[in-house]
Amino acid sequence: MTLTHLPADPAELLSGLDPEQQAVAESISGPVVVMAGAGTGKTRAITHRIAYAVAMGRHDPAKTLAVTFTNRAAGEMSRRLAGLGVAGVRVRTFHSAALRQLRWAWPQAIGGEMHDVIASKSSLVASAASQLRLGSDFATVRDLATEIEWAKVMQVGPAEYAGVASLHGRKGPGGLTVEQAGEVYEGYERLKRSAGRIDFEDVLLLTVGVLEDRQDLRQQVQNSFAHFTVDEFQDVSAVQQRLLQVWLGDRDDVCVVGDVAQTIYSFAGADPSHLLHFGNQFANTTVVSLARWYRCTPQIVQVAEDVLADGVVSAQLLATTKARRVPLRSQVSDGPAPRVVQYADEPSEAVAVVSQIRKLIAAGTPPREIAILVRINALTEQFEAALADAGIAYSVRGGRRFFDRPEVRKGVSLLRGAARGAADIGQAPDDPITLVRAILSAAGWSEKPPTGTGAVREAWESLAALVGLCDEVVAADSSAGLNEIIREIARREEVQDAPSVDGVTLASLHAAKGMEWDAVFLVGLVDTMVPMSHAETPAQVEEERRLLYVGITRARAFLQLSWADSRLPGGRPRKPSRFLAPIPGHAGSDRNRKADSVSAVKRRARKPANCRICGKALVTAKERSVIRCRTCPSQVNEQLLDALQQWRTETVATLAAERGSSIPAYVVATDATLEALAEQVPTDSAELAAIPGLGPAKLAAYGQALMTLLDQHR
Asked: What is the CATH classification number for the domain harbouring 89?
């Protein structure tokens, strides 16, 4: 159901929801806890709950606050609420909500202007460690910063850190003792104060402190909000829970949503007990469990549940999880069985996985619907190289936010400068698409991607995504100029809604949380990596298991889990992840399917595609699909294109009826593939096979029908 305004009959908002989602939507008063597994439609349920409460006149959207953990999730929730016709609801992360309140309260409670928030702790932590003559290498500084963040969200100061860390079984990072880590923590706080700065954890702590100390300010904040929704509640830390309690006061109009099986941030202070014991805090709590899985095939669901159930979870989480979590039931049609594959070495694993990706793309899976997930970002390097060699676009997720990247900031600044210059002379520039490309060339963009990997390639992909965003604006509104492009960039920047890159995603398992793809490759699954070697306690090992569970549940239809015998050809043998043991086929034939060593694999760099009309290098995915750059005239047979679109619609309907569930149109053929067919009008099977997006499987299924259709429109 697509709405642009609230319906006259609120019951319309309940149509299309399953019984459990409807129960969530109708629970519009009092405390509510929603136990929602991955892919069960929790965002749909809670946005419909907010919309239904507003439509019923029970909630004031201006006094409704929805809180989640990432800007991307907040943007998605905002878009869904807008689609349901709800305006005025504040959707924030914990940090952004607290930051707004602190900026407002600071002059009244502390005086003067609020201190700047540091973007990264690294430099101050490194200085503090150096002053103590302790390790200041990158890895140690990073781990020290993580430890300081944990201490602060646990509301533990430098003086108490060593004792509390020991009680929690934590060890000092980088070979340091907890006492030494505590000294670095103290030095970091001292340097930060002397610089007149605060960090992100301070934002939460200071907001809580100010609102608890000043009744007048607390009352104003509480008067601003009456209804609360908190997503991913299993990841709430002690200080976030305290902030929520300050917002609520003595009220209980709050709905929390979470899944204990996706608790993967305990190392950073997340505490699932807030979710598990929510009913103890509030009397008459309504509990709803979402158990219908809409994301993954039954085969992937089974693997995910098997991996999760095989663990001996720490006592509290085991008992509560089994009592409160219901078995998930897939609502998706059957798909291929997930594969567990063993490779000879890591280079072989990278080459073989990319070969599989090429086959998926050839069969019609868009690159943006494919992901390679790793335990740590350092493992992406070989896969980046293999993708670059194959000529497949990719993006690395999990680093600096898109609009904070230097190349993006420079590009946006140049675009804004050009817009101001055009306004100064009172002239609107012609052809904004060409203009944008010319401007961004000064920031480092080029039509041809760089041959290398790493930072250079990532910078180019960022600028290419910015180019694509500008193209989208013009495609949506042919009259749009540079000013409209700038406004859209500003809107997206405000909510951190980054443009998508039409390429394969590489991400860590943590960074993949909240994402999903048609095809997922979980790689590097050896026992020193998943679980990580530093996971020593049962609780730490089980968090690693839940992390793999999160990775598995990112896949909609295709899933491959792989590991390599050794790092390099002929290297020391390793063991597969112990978490793979319950997966069918793990110890059988799949383990015997070793890939050849990379020395036996012929690695060929794919030549860049060129326009079949002018010969220029093709940049975007659409250009490569139609084998024509955007500046060359289209030669599309419009009647044929209409016929192809009709054929696809009918084919999709037939497949959906056979499978008993809806399927996306691109499963049959993408828009770009249809356009390429209508432009080139292949005359035989060889020419048909050369069309991007028509791999062997699609040719076998649809080749004859397509040739018949093409013959009718020559």
From this structure: 3.40.50.300
Buried b (16+ CB within 10 A) or exposed e, 26-50: bbbeebbbbbbbbbbbbbbbbbbbb
- The C-alpha atoms of residue 118 and residue 199 are separated, in whole angstroms, by 5
State phi, psi for 263 to the nearest 5 degrees: -75, 105
CB atoms within 10 A of CB 235: 26
Span 673-696, pLDDT tens digits: 888 888 888 888 778 887 877 766
Taking Cα atoms as reference points, which of 536, 448, 607 lies closest to residue 170?
536
Q: Is residue 509 part of a domain?
A: yes
Domain count, the chain: 5
Give the residue from 695, 35, 86 showing the smallest Cα distance to 356: 695
**Cβ within 8 Å of residue 40, ≥6 positions away:** 290, 291, 292, 293, 294, 328
Question: pLDDT-derived band of residue 663, with 50, 70 and 90 as boundaries?
Answer: low
Question: Buried (b) or exposed (e) across 654-674, using 16+ Cβ within 10 A?
Answer: ebeeeeeeebeebbbbbbbbb
Locate 529 and state its tokens: 């990596």
Q: Please tell me whether residues 431 and 478 are part of one structural domain.
A: yes
Report yes or no on 132 lying in a domain. yes
Q: Are residues 657 and 514 in the same domain?
A: no
Question: What contacts 48, CB < 8 A, 6 or more positions away?
Answer: 13, 14, 17, 21, 24, 25, 84
Residue 426 in domain: yes
Six-digit token string for 379: 């493992």
In this structure, the answer to whether residues 421 and 465 fall within a common structural domain is: yes
Question: For the whole model, what pTM was predicted?
Answer: 0.70
226, 352: one domain: no
Distance separating alpha carbons of residues 451 and 435, to the nearest angstrom: 25
Residue 293's SS3 state is: strand
Report angle CA 477, 483, 487 to the nearest 5 degrees. Answer: 85
pLDDT in tens, 89-128: 999 999 999 999 999 999 999 999 899 999 889 899 999 9
Among the three residues 548, 570, 600, which one is the final residue of a domain in this structure? Answer: 600
Query: Which one-letter amino acid corresponds to residue 334?
Result: D
- Assign residue 691 the CATH number of its domain: 1.10.150.80
Q: What are the b/e assignments for 607-621, b being 16+ CB within 10 Å?
A: eeebbeeeeebbbbb
In DSSP notation, 146-209 reads HHHHHHHHTT--HHHHHHHHHHTT---GGG--HHHHHHHHHHHHHHHHHTTEE-HHHHHHHHHH
pLDDT tens digits, 530-553? 998 878 788 888 899 999 999 999
Domain assignment of residue 533, yes or no: yes
Residues 189, 216: one domain?
no
Q: Based on the domain organization, do 454 and 389 belong to the same domain?
A: no
Tell whether the model's pLDDT for residue 636 goes beyond 90: no
Q: For residues 368 and 501, what is the distance between their CA atoms, to the nearest angstrom?
A: 7
- CA 404 – CA 410 distance, rounded (Å): 10
- The Cα 15–Cα 3 span in angstroms is 12
407 is in which domain, residue-wise?
402-494
> Quick one: pLDDT band at residue 494, thresholds 50, 70, 90?
low
Indicate whether 596 and 508 sit together in one domain: yes
The pair of structure tokens assigned to 704 is: 């004859």
